[in-house]
Specification:
Blueprint: E1 6-12, H1 20-29, E2 36-39, E3 42-47, E4 54-60, E5 65-71, H2 77-87, H3 94-101, H4 108-113, H5 125-134, H6 140-154, E6 156-158, E7 161-163, H7 177-191, H8 202-210, H9 217-226, H10 239-248, H11 254-260, H12 268-276
Antiparallel strand pairs: 1-5, 2-3, 3-4, 4-5, 6-7
Length: 288
């Protein structure tokens, strides 16, 4: 597809405050070449929509996010806006979130330093689940490399970008055999209709995913947080979370940290963002 015929600029509103650094920083640092890009202070990526593919360009501003939607069909404007609002967590209530998290004396300084942190999500649950499996036990750079190879082989061109492939042969992946088995199980579940949309029941989806080979707590909770939009997903086994907990004087074992996190409910996904931000990682900043 050489071009998209319908271009619509919009302003996406949100309830302030909104801290953009980790929100856009995470999307930029994990961007799959050919599907997403950061250019001229704007994040661009492809969208799957009912009447054809699209590209969204999103630029953060202090009081809004400037969006430009290039669409195949103008009937898809509303779902395109909905996908991008979900991606950027623009419908969050930052005051409610920050009030609960700042009641913990160890989290309070983090919240006051960066009020209004949002959870970077996804525009497509199956895409994120595939990428989560590719990211198991490897670096961010390695995960992007695996994903980029998939796009090169199977991505659908959309103007200068591509749609991320949702169907392929796991045997093609340059990963351990166990990871191919996990990917095959996921692709079969997706073909069978497992629901990874924001309207799905998180408890039901967690049970379905835990039943798949190779799906442990990190992968399942990552999908719950970013694909389902569960505001209370928690990743106590994540290395970055463990390092943050140790630096703050929080418990470091998953069981003990989970017990301590009870006071952060129902906003533990946002606590995860604050804990990750204690480390010096590219996901925490927007490139200059």
């Amino acid at each position: 597809m050489d071009s998209l015929p319908y271009v619509v600029p919009l302003r996406l509103s949100f309830t302030p405050p909104l801290f953009p650094d980790n929100l856009f920083g995470h999307l930029i640092a994990t961007a799959v070449p050919g599907v997403e890009e950061w250019r001229d202070n704007t994040y661009r990526r492809t969208l799957r929509l009912p009447h054809g593919p699209a590209i969204a360009a999103l630029t953060p501003h202090p009081d809004h996010v400037a969006a430009v939607f290039a669409l195949t069909d103008p009937r898809d404007l509303a779902p395109a806006v909905a996908q991008c609002r979900f991606l950027l967590d623009l419908d969050a209530d930052p005051v409610a979130v920050d009030t609960v998290l700042s009641s913990d004396p160890l989290l309070k300084p983090l919240v006051h330093k960066a009020p209004g942190r949002r959870v970077p999500r996804t525009v497509n649950g199956p895409e994120f689940a595939i990428r989560a499996v590719l990211g198991q036990q490897v670096s961010t750079a390695a995960a992007r490399t695996h994903a980029a190879r998939l796009v090169q082989r199977h991505g659908t061109p959309v103007a200068d970008l591509h749609l991320f492939p949702l169907s392929f042969d796991p045997a093609e992946l340059a990963v351990p055999t166990s990871r191919r088995t996990t990917m095959a199980a996921l692709l079969t579940a997706l073909e069978s209709g497992v629901d990874l949309t924001p309207t799905a029941d998180p408890a039901h989806v967690r049970a379905e995913l835990h039943a798949l080979p190779g799906f442990g707590p990190w992968t399942v909770e990552s999908i719950a947080m970013r694909a389902l939009g569960d505001p209370d997903a928690f990743l106590p086994t994540d290395l970055g979370i463990k390092l943050a907990a140790a630096s703050l004087g929080l418990p470091v074992t998953p069981a003990a940290l989970t017990r301590r996190s009870e006071g952060w409910r129902p906003w533990r996904s946002y606590a995860v963002q604050h804990l990750w931000a204690t480390g010096d990682h590219e996901v925490n900043r927007i490139p200059t």
